[in-house]
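S.,

Sequence below, as promised.
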Amino acid sequence: MKQINIDQFKVSEKVDISKISTTYNLGVEKDAVEAELRSVRKKLGKFQDTIYAHGKYAVLICIQGMDTAGKDSMIREVFKDFNTRGVVVHSFKVPTPKELKHDYIWRHYIALPERGKFGIFNRTHYENVLVTRVHPGYILGENIPNVNSLEDINNNFWDKRFDQINNFEKHIAENGIIIFKFFLHLSKDEQKNRLLRRLAKKDKNWKFSPGDLKERKLWDKYQTCYQDAINRTSKPHAPWYTIPADDKPTARYLVAKILYDTLIKYTDIQEPELDDEVKANLDLYKEQLENE
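The prediction came back faster than expected:
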């Protein structure tokens, strides 16, 4: 398998996502990619035990992408070797009436991972500058002061919302949450193929909605909104990574490798040592147990 520099997927300057490939050739067959994924995710699982014992950091993984980009299967395959008590997945849907009684970040803030745990957001707070930007009428349902019509949802409104998101992420990063944001970059042709497979396979029919086709017609607008969101919010403390997503095994491996290669740079994350008194009496404790 070819050597990968994970920084080539990190957004560190403004990007034009239409010029970023949705495919990536690792130079090996699918079986080899899946074998590498198994190896990396075992290391991630071991690291999760260490960060849990260390108890000072949390990890937030944000996954965004168009319908059929592979978000659910990404989560299933990359985090398969995690201890279930150390990872929590949140799939954010249409806001509930209770959630609409709060600001749009509230439901995401209360779902943040505890210290020592991984939190995965399947769709994220970025829906509030993506789907709501494509369908600004949704904003009116948030009952925001001084937003009474579509005319009030202008460029200044979106500028403020991006500032709020950047401030939110800066705050949580400064308080010990390590942030990863992955954009699963899917081609329109591959989305078509995956939607057709949903229709063709009986056990996948439940995933299909006629609304998927309506949203597909807005593809270009979504791409513009994704690009703007990524360019405005990719920061050193909360970087975006664009992941070629037309091939699912490759995308899963790239996400796992980015996570692991980044996290092992946190050399202060170590399992705590026993205090000197306990360490000095290990043989005594062992003898007590053996003599029961």
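The radius of gyration is 22 Å.

Coffee later?
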